[in-house]
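Obj.: predict assembly geometry.
Materials: sequence records (below).
Method: joint structure prediction, all chains together.
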Amino acid sequence: MNKIFEVPLYAYERSPDQDAPSPVRHKVIVVGAGPIGLAAAIDLAQQGVEVVVLDDNDKVSFGSRAICFAKRPLEILDRLGCGQPMVDKGVVWNVGKVFFNDREVYEFNLLPEKGHERPAFINLQQYYFEEYLVNRVRVLQAEGAPIEIRGRNKVEAVGTHPDHVKLEVETPEGAYTVEADWLIACDGAGSPIRSMLGLDFVGRVFEDNFLIADVIMEADFPTERWFWFDPPFNKGQSALLHKQPDGVWRIDLQLGWDIDKEREKRPENVIPRLKAMLGDDVHFELEWVSIYTFQCRRMEKFRHGRVIFAGDAAHQVSPFGARGANSGLQDTDNLCWKLKLVMDGKAPESLLDSYDVERLHGADENILNSTRSTDFITPKSVMSRILRDAVLDLSEHYEFARPLVNSGRLSVPCTYDGSPLNSADALDGPERTRPGSPCPDAPVKDGFLLPMLAGKFTLLTIDTDAPEMIEEDGIEVTRVALSVKDDPTQELKRRYLGNAESAVYLIRPDQHVAARRPNFDEPMIRQAIRRAAGKEHAHV
Amino acid sequence: MSDLILKPNIDDADEFYADLLAAHEGLDKADSDALNARLLLVLANHIGDRTILSQALAAATLKKE
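Observations (raw structure tokens):
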């Protein structure tokens, strides 16, 4: 049986662009049909923006690769119309176990907070993730949305101009030239677009190799994340076991720096390692093996005129903490509504600079967290190993040491504190919903809050009055009126009111809070809308 | 907020110091290093206050401010 990643999902087809007498100009071209490129294209197409995705391949990702998707990206995928198949297929897990040497030192439960539609995490192979995104593209196409994926279209050259970008694209039937008003580069950590433009990508290289294997086994391991520090089957190194759908297990084994990668990848070398880990009597089949190294680095800025970078092309982190694909989806979530406003002439081009400000902040947070995890997992000095082992030994006996154990700080969305799009906080409300925060979900009426806030500027009122619709300089804001009575569990009150009696929240299309106050004040709300659209400079 | 105490503060200092040495008695270098590291973490957790911990880290370097 062919696996999904062996079947061309967007096979090469000749485009009329290839026969056009002069280069055809598109609104947006996205380079890279990975999770981030597809999400960007779907987001734009849903807003009616004409978009073409170019990819040098014609299949979904080979092997499971990114497997851990967090709640916030699932909420973004809901807005993109493909969260449900991901959650239906994905494996939900809450329990993790930490092992040190030959023993279990402790067990934890993520204890996900109640009152959210989506789980804290799902595990799902990247190839399914991409397949569901491609399925969504096909549905949009059937509905007449202006979105197209061109397989085996490899960008060979980029020319940048003040108001457009020109691409030379190689196909199985020869090269052609195509143009776009905007280019979104989602072409991965090795981004050819970035190299062609001669842009920086600096950071820290980690001298380590990890063997990553997907095995299919009928094993009665529970649905838990197991992490080993210095286990007997991989002395001095680390190991990870994580469950994916279809009885596929992800195994991650740290190998160290001085190894022969080609040799380590051969099944005759991989299988004994896995047998030592799983036990001789467990039957398994190898589905995919790869060896990776990683770096923590980012571009100095993500926007270069009409070329905008997102996902791994813009920033790269270690895999510990699931911050790669998860943060890339937050990039496009942040970018696409801004790009739409700019393209429609409803916001100045400088609004796009806030993409840099906000997502550089996100990238730095992710790099910091993933670097710290890496330093814990692979101590770089004698003393850092002594301290690391002391933490692990103590964690077996005393609860206090457990928060110090760092096998990956799992991805949480970042709050855009200090963003130029935020208005000053004018509510004595909860910290977690201050301006810049991603809106936390809450149960309301028969459903949940977040789907009510999707994809447009919203004025959320809780137990106070406001107009049903405001238009400020071309930007329409629609009201969502709620009462604390709409949520008998009181989560809406806890998350959005705190001590306040009532609240008005101005919420951006990406569900981040732009401003909040106790009641509707028209001049102030209008000013907040202008600021959230990049039309007002923040007071210094 | 209180500051890191750098004046004598241990009751019966000689007794404490003897206990500290006794805890290391018979241990090889690796085990002693591990014990010190665990002790450090236990004490740090007891203090908890990040300001005090930062002051303690600075004090331990023996560098003038």
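Conclusions so far: Residues 29-47 of chain B form the longest helix (19 residues).
To do: check interface contacts against the pulldown list.
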